[in-house]
Amino acid sequence: VARLCVCDLLVAQCDANCCCDPDCSPEEFSLFTTCSVPVVVGDSHLCRQKAAVYSLDVEANPPERIFQLVDQVNPSIFCIHATNYKQALYLNSPEMPTAENFDRLLSEFGGAAFSAEPEGWSVDTEAPDPPDANETHSYQYGAPVQTEDAFLRLPSPVVSSWCSDANPAGFLVNQATKCIRSVSVEKCDSIQGLSMLFYINSSILAVNVTVQSIVVQSLDGMRTLLEGDDVLRLPLALDELCLNIVLGVSYHITYTDTGAITEAAAAFVLGTITKEALSVQQSFQISFTQANTKPVPLSGNPGYVVGLPVRAGFRPQGYPFLVEFLTNKHSQLSILQSTASQDCLAAQGARAPVLFGYNMISGCKLRITAGMKCQPLAQTLLDVLKGQSFPEYVASFGNSQAQDVLDWVPITHLHISEQRFSNPLQSLCQIPVALGIEVKWTKYGSLVNPQARIVNVTATLSTSTLKQLPPGREKIIPVTSSVVFTDISSPAEPGYKAWPTINIKLPFDFFYPFV
Amino acid sequence: RILNNSFQLSSLPLQILFYVNGIYSIFYFLATLAMIVYKSQVFSYPDDFLVPDLAVLFLMAILEVPRLYLGCKGNLMEEEVPLGLSLGFTVGSVVLCVYLLAWQTYILWADVVLNAVLLCAYGLESGLKVTAIAAFVS
């Protein structure tokens, strides 16, 4: 305890007013005014212990430091007389790894990650112990999909482009990766990542991975789908070729709305490599579909994600009330896509999908010659602007299901005609020259995680009169179509919980003798 | 001394000591238990060290009962067999008491006092028992 000094902070220098500092000389002690640390003791609970007492004798000239080692006694009856537990009173310095105890320390404290509780990569304390068919294991978004021994592997490039087999697939995370694996024809049946067995061997807890389809790719790249073949095809070394090596795996996992996995299927692409091939590129993909729903690509969950297409659909004809919407690829909200030739009439119907949050403008040029009939021209331009099947309803959330009719917003159509009232009797036919789609959206939900929700969609068609041209003259009119997204969210309102109420009710027979 | 037409060989001091020991044992057990609880709250007392200490204390409490009962019975009935058994139990209790005195995780000053008194009592008892056995046998 005589060597301990709490105020000795500077190395090889004297700290001010630190009486226990060994770096101080008597001249420096004479400059001190007080002792910042008068007593240094161990644990105050001990019955008897040595204490180092430092004090300054200001009477002497020059002042000098007095150091005494005294016995301090704790008079309490509950003072610690002795202890057999070394860590109780002293700091336990950790073991230094040496050649002898390194293995033991590694097995005790080593792990894949720096955490307070070391867990091995393949040991999962939450997974039920041998997979029970009746037990369902519910996942959260991004949680690794567990199999019997480890995780469902989706090989992907980690640091370089080489395939790493330790990448787990996350639940509900649709991924597609490509990576390169080194091969050699001689050892092609021993390399694990090239055989189908490696990918369907591990069953996801109670669910086995079934082979959905096998596509065989020949050396020149032509792919053929094998009919009705669920047989496992293992790599086969044949002369200078190696057949049936895995070039691509596509997992399709079906899950329920409680987060349990019910089905898993894998579609394979098998190929052939020659003797000269040193590496082969493999592509892997995983997609998740909810059970009992048609796999519709979501544009957000639940709010729209910027950059994903706006979902739209039709109400089926002939139904007196809304039952379900029809949504297919052709009923997407789309606008005219500008082509290189910029000729409206020659546009081959190229349309660009309307992506949420992206304001777009496109157009083409219409060349009007003399003698063009207005009515067919108007109809053609309307087709060019609106496309073949312009939808009637737009989904208000990115994940609106077709059955939820209240989640769909009807498209309002406005017509602005540039009519010259100079001659009201002459109702000239109008040709559409501009289509503007304005999508009003709002932020919905909580302030920290707002979701985009489409509230209103208005399609404004502007028309103008077609003036007949004198023969031989031609005019070029620009035709434009645009999409604008406007944020009409109102400012956030704080939401408070209801005041707690005191709920007092007397028991039924409180006034028993009198009532 | 003649009492009821027979010589009395039972040892009166031993009987008094048994009586006092019984009361003191109850007090000792409760006090030590309370102190272990106090220690576990104030100091760092991991389970690896707490369990053996508690086990020894409870074992001692369990051993006290047959020890005192056999001792009383043997002394009053003037039989040496129960008294010999009680002596054996005493030896065990002495070992446990020494553990609590010297090898406990935290030994407070109060622990030292209580255990020292108990050891003295055990020592005195053992001496008196040996004398009584000698008196009974002969």
TrEMBL record, chain A:
It holds the Pfam family TCTN_DUF1619. The keyword Cell inner membrane does not apply. Residues 119-138 are annotated as: Disordered. Residues 138-290, 300-487 form the Tectonic-1-3 domain. The keyword Cell division does not apply. Residues 2-102 form the Tectonic-1-3 N-terminal domain. One of its GO terms (cellular component) is MKS complex. GO terms for biological process: cilium assembly; protein localization to ciliary transition zone. Part of the tectonic-like complex (also named B9 complex). Belongs to the tectonic family. PANTHER family: TECTONIC FAMILY MEMBER (PTHR14611), TECTONIC-1 (PTHR14611:SF1). This is TECT1 protein. The gene is Tctn1.
Automatic annotation (TrEMBL), chain B:
It is found in: Cell projection, Cilium; Membrane. One of its GO terms (biological process) is non-motile cilium assembly. InterPro entries: Uncharacterised_TM-17. One of its GO terms (cellular component) is membrane. It comes from the Eukaryota. The keyword Transmembrane helix applies. The chain crosses the membrane at residues 12-37, 49-69, 81-101. It is a multi-pass membrane protein. Keywords: Cell projection, Membrane, Transmembrane, Transmembrane helix. PANTHER family: GEO07735P1-RELATED-RELATED (PTHR13531), TRANSMEMBRANE PROTEIN 80 (PTHR13531:SF8). This is TMM80 protein. The lineage of its organism: Eukaryota, Metazoa, Chordata, Craniata, Vertebrata.
